[in-house]
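Raw record, unedited: Amidohydrolase 2
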Amino acid sequence: MTQRQSPTATIVDIHTHVYTPLFMEILRSRDAVPYIRSFPPDTSDRLIILPGEDSPDTPATSRGRPIGPDYYDISKKIEFMDTHGIDISVISLANPWLDFLPTEDALRVTQQVNDELNNLCASYPGRLYAFGALPLSGSVAEVIQEIKRLAQLRYVRGVIMGTSGLGDGLDDPRLDSVWGALQETKQTIFLHPHYGLPKEVYGSRQDNYGHVLALAMGFPMETTIAVARMFLSGVWDKWTKLSVLLAHSGGTLPFLAGRLESCILHDRHIMEKGKDEKRRTIWDILQNNILLDSVVYARAGLKAATEVAGSDRILFGTDHPFFPPLTNEEGGKEEQWLSVTMNYRAVQEEFEPKTLDGILGGNAIRLLRLE
């Protein structure tokens, strides 16, 4: 087991994924993205979740990613936690969640998967909580029905959502009653990217760079644009208590928040539209409605996140089981994950001890009600 990162803090990982048994079964049964399959002569399973990953022109090493027990065996999650000194994890499905389900199956399957998540938490009481999934390919009424049911599950503390919402983005007026139900039940939304940017923006040599452009650049910009659309459409003007946790420290939002606010104030179309003078600023929303995880791997990103949201709204995360160790010189796997130790190092270097305890766990315990 690694040395404790803080002698006093309860360490909470709020960004950590799992593919439940039913989710794995669904992905193995499919023949279109998203799915799991092997590509001969390699017989190992690969997880295909991003558009274009299974193209015959895509190099084998960029065709999805290897998927092993860390992705679906909850005992491996606990082993990972023990290795890295993590006391509590708030688990959630990984992308693409359940947005691809046929409409007629959406509610039933989502309920089954959420029950699996809750039962996994019950198998390790006190160590696991969860963000539930929503049947977003079903009807709005079904989404709201599941939100209300999730609020009754012992270990669920919110929901995970992608940026497409019901299929038309998070500024979709059809989501109004969904936001209302989430605010009423006091459930945090964990907003996570999936599609990134159109592949064309990366240029003709993108496959030379593995997944780096899509994950390092595409995901953060996807999050930034999605949240900007929520903000511009007045979601938080109407649902003033709606809490949203942004993956990867909010993408580029902390850095670009001032530019976003300035562009609004100088936009003639918005001015002529007569937007209500009581419009909340992006600064107000960042400081009162938005939480940011620490999955940004460096002090510079954490500094920007802290300046816009406040250190009491930054929560530690690992993004397990993604970004696993590659191999060491002897050909075996490193015991500790570089992706995790980078995050630990960044928060330890950026924050004073009293603040550090909040980042590592205290903030999550308070904000997500982790008794």
